[in-house]
Amino acid sequence: MKIIKCFKILLLLVGLFGLSSNPALSQFQQDPVISPEFKEDGSVTFRIMAPTADSVKISGNWMAGWGSSEKLTKGTEGLWELNISDLNPDYYNYTYSVDGVRTIDPHNPWVIRDVRNTFSAFILPGENSEIIQLSDQKNGTVQEIWYPSPTLNMDQRRMKVYLPPNYNDSNEEYPVLYLLHGGGGDESAWTELGLANRIMDNLIHSGDTKPMIVVMTNGNPNQESTWHVAPGHKPVRESDSQNPMATMRFEESLVSDVIPFVESNYRVKTGKENRAVTGLSMGGWQTQKLALNYPEMFNYYGVMSMGIIRESQFAMNAQTHLELTNQNIDNLKESGYELYWIACGTDDFLFDSVIHMREVLDGHDFDYVYRETGGGHTWDRWRLYLSEFAPMLFQ
Amino acid sequence: MKIIKCFKILLLLVGLFGLSSNPALSQFQQDPVISPEFKEDGSVTFRIMAPTADSVKISGNWMAGWGSSEKLTKGTEGLWELNISDLNPDYYNYTYSVDGVRTIDPHNPWVIRDVRNTFSAFILPGENSEIIQLSDQKNGTVQEIWYPSPTLNMDQRRMKVYLPPNYNDSNEEYPVLYLLHGGGGDESAWTELGLANRIMDNLIHSGDTKPMIVVMTNGNPNQESTWHVAPGHKPVRESDSQNPMATMRFEESLVSDVIPFVESNYRVKTGKENRAVTGLSMGGWQTQKLALNYPEMFNYYGVMSMGIIRESQFAMNAQTHLELTNQNIDNLKESGYELYWIACGTDDFLFDSVIHMREVLDGHDFDYVYRETGGGHTWDRWRLYLSEFAPMLFQ
After folding, report:
1. Residue B103 near residue B58, CB atoms below 8 Å
2. How far apart (Å, rounded) are the C-alpha atoms in residues B322 and B336?
3. CA atoms of A295 and A287, how far apart (whole Å)
4. HEC assignment per residue over B93-139
5. N or C terminus: fewer CB in 10 A for chain B?
6. What is the full DSSP assignment across A110-138?
7. CB of B334 within 8 Å of any CB in chain A?
8. The pLDDT value given to residue A330
9. CA atoms of A223 and A253, how far apart (whole Å)
């Protein structure tokens, strides 16, 4: 107890007068281990203090293939270390495995969540990561707001709304981009993993993109919100039985609940010509369903990393979706639209579904713009696609 | 590579059709280890899979004293477990130590950050934690917004703004509470650790508190924002050399930059009678400095877990602060105020400073309300104090 009191007084001293350098304060004041450390040659050094460990590995999302890892080397005093070079400046995440136990980097305070898993995160500075760096100019606002969803029988659901930098300084009305996440994600995915607000800020500042509002909903129709803000600490997995891809419930709620709420609560330009929708993976599937079922609602569609699964491969709602496409795509043609944009990476495990979708659309002489990139089913692609899609909107 | 492809197709199946139960999917779909698990008897079971570990301990913020821990017991197949009972329903955080390496709970996706450290988090449901549970009624909005700070020579600084539930549904103007964090904290502390938005939602819904706007600034005058959203990935520690307690820079910027911004960007009732300020620890120090230097600005003051350090104990700006108090407190009396509220726990390591502050204030016949509780210098106290302070405002 005496030690604790002494420690707390030291803490107070630090807080009050900025004293430091006492090793007992390391946890609060200054972690003596710096990880990750960015070197001048562009490489990154990862470290973890684990004196009794026999094996420490790192798994990072820059590595090829799920489950890949590299070994760290044990140095003096139990400090394990690995230097990695040749990384492109970008936004990365990683975890350690210490004698087989998965852990984040205890020396790095930036932690993110993807579906159920947590990761340590960093942005490697450099020319190619400028679009995800915080702009020095005035940035937009991100709101966490609750709206009623009569369609889903919920008094409130949570979404994130990005307002462009000068929203508060003018009386201007803005067009709206509806930005949808993938399977397992939620309304936090596009800001936390996609850094969508920073991308929009930078695109608007450079003049490449028109100022617009971006609405990031929760695409799981049985969730009120990101699981950990919902009552009763409900984990995502409890709601997995209801599959958001197999029903139209999310799409109905977007059209009936979200859009009217947005258009009556923000200074918004209304009408089809002022609405765009895009999404990745499951959100790309939902974007297609919106196009096919509500052809009067949007003028711009972006289908990222998702096509139409071949019926031979998955017999269930892929078949329904194919029938829906064949049945409704001509309505969409007739109704008109400015842009139907399809983007996918050649290493994406859904790449074949995009080939199939293009075959189906070509069979209807349906106009679309196809953007093929390298890469797979990963957030670096979706950040890239957002940065390419947004400049084409509302021009 | 084949395995990876197979795994991805399985993932797709899960995403598309809700298949599950394949053990290879456990990381993404369903973690077979549930931790923490809330039992019907009110106890909580913590688990971690660590087959090769020799020792696993848990440190939780419900334990007495910094650095306390309890051992988990190794069960079959390397699953370590500990059941803890007699916890009050509240918001808790914890970490594990696996063979001496600090780690969050890899089975719990809810991770929070306090200063530089990350913790696993949970809310134990029950009657006493109702005020921090998400309300079923319509909740308020939390904004992350950037404002210019000419006083601090920054084009933009970040703050969080809470708007009460019906803000968008009316043309009402609202009073404003300025809510300040402690040393090492930032503009995220009061929502992430204090759950201030939930407390305000529940107090407003029950009618105990008037609807108000709550502004949560960054009290470190050399920071643009929470370190990880600032450019160049600057950690907090780089800015510790400039001490926010030793200068008036934050207080000047609050009065000159923040309040004018808030009052021109939100539907706000202006004037002293519609402004309150409260803060914990360093923020309680800043609240005192605001009272002493800007007696015309606020009508309600809340000083949480901070008094005036005895000069015998710390000779530096404590002496200056004492002089400032003796010099300016009569101005504040003359200027008038509705409430000067002081709250502290008897186990707080700053409790003696509160005794000293009361002696000084009593020497000036200065009116204040003193609220003494049990407990120490911890967030459960500050959540409690907010829930007691807010209902006294603007009545």
Report:
1. no
2. 20
3. 11
4. EEEEEECCEEECCCCCCCEEEECCEEEEEEECCCHHHHHHCCCCCCC
5. N
6. -EEEETTEEEEEEE--SGGGGGGSPPSSP
7. no
8. 95
9. 12
Using the Cβ of B349 and the Cβ atoms of chain A, whether some distance falls under 8 Å is answered with: yes
Structure tokens at B300: 């309600």
Per-residue pLDDT for B29 more than 80?
Answer: no
Asked if the domains B25-125 and B134-392 are classified in one and the same CATH topology, the answer is: no
Q: Do B53 and A232 touch (CB under 8 A)?
A: no
Cβ-based contacts of B9 with chain A (< 8 Å):
349
Percent over 90 (pLDDT), chain B? 70
Please state which CATH number belongs to domain A134-392: 3.40.50.1820
**Better-predicted residue by pLDDT, A22 or B90:** B90
Q: What is the pLDDT of residue B229?
A: 56
- Distance from A370 to chain B by nearest Cα, in Å? 23
The mean of the pLDDT values for chain B is 87
The alpha-helical segments, DSSP class H, found in chain B are 2-17, 189-192, 196-205, 249-253, 259-265, 282-293, 317-335, 351-363, 379-389
User: Is the CB of residue A89 less than 8 Å away from at least one CB of chain B?
Assistant: no
Beta-ladder partners of B218: none
Taking an 8 Å cut-off on Cβ atoms, the answer to whether B65 and A1 are in contact is yes
Cβ distance A4 to B148 less than 8 Å, yes or no, reads no
Residue A241 has pLDDT above 90, yes or no: no
- The pLDDT mean for chain A works out to 87
- Residue A26 CA from chain centroid, whole number: 33
Residue to test with chain A: of B20, B146, B202, most A Cβ within 10 A: B146
The rounded distance, in Å, linking the Cα atoms of A252 and A256 is 6
CA A381, CA A274: separation in Å to the nearest integer?
25
Q: Which of residues 106 through 125 in chain A touch B, CB cutoff 8 A?
A: 106, 109-111, 113, 115-118, 121-123, 125
Instruction: Report residue A132's pLDDT band, with 50, 70 and 90 as the boundaries.
Output: very high
A30-125: CATH architecture: Sandwich (2.60)
Structure tokens at B383: 């959540």
Confidence of residue B190 (pLDDT cuts 50, 70, 90): very high
pLDDT, mean of residues A158-175 = 95
- Domain chopping of chain A, boundaries: 30-125, 134-392
In a mutagenesis test of the B interface, which of A25, A92, A116 is the best target, namely the one with the most B β-carbons within 10 Å?
Answer: A116
Cβ neighbours of residue B153 closer than 8 Å, sequence gap 6 or more: none
- Chain A to chain B Cβ contacts (< 8 Å): 250
> Chain A closest CA to B338's CA: distance in Å?
29
What top-level class would CATH report for the domain B25-125? mainly beta
pLDDT of residue B358: 97
Q: What pLDDT shows up at residue A313?
A: 59
